[in-house]
């Protein structure tokens, strides 16, 4: 619903569900600490998962366009032009809110991507782990930057997928477990664990962050280490 | 445990639990697309919550230092010097992994902060919502950029805190509900909702991201709207 007020009729700026006077809009754009080239850093983040999708630069016009169109828009330094992520791929990033940092020279576009953000088809542009590169003898890519919850989800999914590959001989206990849903539900330790912890968490006893920290420490240990530590504790 | 090999004895680089030759280390640093000032963008992200803590710039030395020390280190453009976040406040960001983007000119420090990251004492530097500024008649700060799960957590916590403030007269139904844990557990719709959905999710039927999307859409509606939509559905 667009409500035009008198002072806006000549320069109406459609915004995130808002009707604004140009004054407030300009005040906001003026408050950004643009660098000597008129740019600031913009980070696009998935509102649901928290994944950092991509990072680009913005100028005044790019920010104004994002606020108006709700599609994450950047300034391309190499092409010296405005570009809206998704204008060719149709994988737009639908922006729900924008946050300025304390110095006002860096912003977050918090939004929902229509599809993979990276031009390579990857969900995000950050799929090259330095740790992995330094650890491995060969460069291995496609190792998405993932926070605790999604790293756990990815691990469980990967295990399940591995099981779909036909294997010779008698199925292992893990294989049987993961192929049998009832058995799975009753046995997989961290599924129950995460649920219990999240239950406590949402009832307000601990913070979700604390839950995830415990989970990370727990599942970063191997099964053998975990068994040992339980034994050590008696 | 430090294992020194022959080729590293003269220039040993302590790294994230690794023992490396200087060659691989240099290959990595060379692979970053440093800009004309020798800089790249660095974003510090909380490994558990996904919150973007701060954004700074790095040069070759800052990245090398972070890999060595596991403490997020940046290059201050204003002070033209290296600085490790936390060197004065002691609120270090303990880096678990570093991710390069597809263009190799932007990195993520994925880590765990020892305390609030912002010099203002705020958990992150992104606490100024553009949407809020444009909506409100007065500038309201301290509105942290939060993804769905933490936004929900914050809302529940806020409601509980509001209840601790003594009120005159007969307590409202919501107040009674939130003060009575048993009543709360049986009644608060989205607590049960989130648990059910997360249960389905971790059992592999849907992705966590889809769960959070449903949650976001659900709790972005007011109670009245939600009741209406249920009525409309029959």
From TrEMBL, chains A, B:
Catalysed reactions, semicolon-separated: 1-(5-phospho-beta-D-ribosyl)-5'-AMP + H2O = 1-(5-phospho-beta-D-ribosyl)-5-[(5-phospho-beta-D-ribosylamino)methylideneamino]imidazole-4-carboxamide
Domain (Phosphoribosyl-AMP cyclohydrolase): residue spans on this chain: 54-127
Family annotation (InterPro entries): PRib_AMP_CycHydrolase_dom, PRib_AMP_CycHydrolase_sf
Top class in the EC scheme: hydrolase
UniProt keyword terms in alphabetical order: Amino-acid biosynthesis, Histidine biosynthesis, Hydrolase
UniProt EC number: 3.5.4.19
Pathway: Amino-acid biosynthesis; L-histidine biosynthesis; L-histidine from 5-phospho-alpha-D-ribose 1-diphosphate: step 3/9
Gene Ontology molecular function: phosphoribosyl-AMP cyclohydrolase activity; phosphoribosyl-ATP diphosphatase activity
Origin: domain of life: Eukaryota
Pfam families xrefs: PRA-CH
BP terms from Gene Ontology: L-histidine biosynthetic process
PANTHER family found in the cross-reference section: HISTIDINE BIOSYNTHESIS BIFUNCTIONAL PROTEIN (PTHR42945), HISTIDINE BIOSYNTHESIS BIFUNCTIONAL PROTEIN HIS7 (PTHR42945:SF1)
Protein name per the record: phosphoribosyl-AMP cyclohydrolase
Native organism: Escallonia rubra
Organism taxonomic ancestry: Eukaryota, Viridiplantae, Streptophyta, Embryophyta, Tracheophyta
């Amino acid at each position: 619903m667009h409500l035009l007020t008198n002072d806006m009729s000549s320069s109406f700026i459609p915004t995130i569900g808002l009707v604004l006077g140009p004054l407030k809009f300009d005040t906001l754009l003026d408050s950004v600490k643009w660098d000597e080239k008129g740019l600031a850093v913009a980070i696009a983040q998935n509102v649901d998962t928290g994944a950092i999708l991509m990072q680009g630069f913005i100028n005044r016009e790019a920010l104004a366009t994002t606020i108006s169109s709700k599609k994450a828009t950047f300034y391309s330094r190499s092409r010296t032009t405005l570009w809206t992520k998704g204008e060719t791929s149709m994988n737009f990033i639908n922006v729900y809110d924008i946050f300025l940092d304390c110095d006002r020279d860096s912003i977050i576009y918090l939004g929902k991507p229509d599809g993979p953000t990276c031009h390579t088809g990857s969900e995000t542009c950050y799929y090259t782990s330095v740790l992995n590169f330094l650890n491995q003898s060969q460069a291995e890519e496609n190792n998405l930057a993932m926070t605790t919850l999604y790293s756990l989800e990815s691990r469980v999914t990967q295990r399940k997928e591995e099981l779909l590959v036909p294997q010779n001989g008698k199925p292992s206990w893990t294989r049987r477990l993961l192929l049998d849903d009832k058995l799975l539900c009753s046995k997989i330790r961290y599924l129950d664990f995460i649920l219990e912890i999240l239950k406590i968490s949402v009832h307000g006893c601990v913070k979700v962050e604390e839950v995830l920290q415990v989970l990370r420490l727990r599942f970063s240990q191997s099964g053998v280490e975990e068994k040992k530590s339980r034994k050590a504790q008696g």
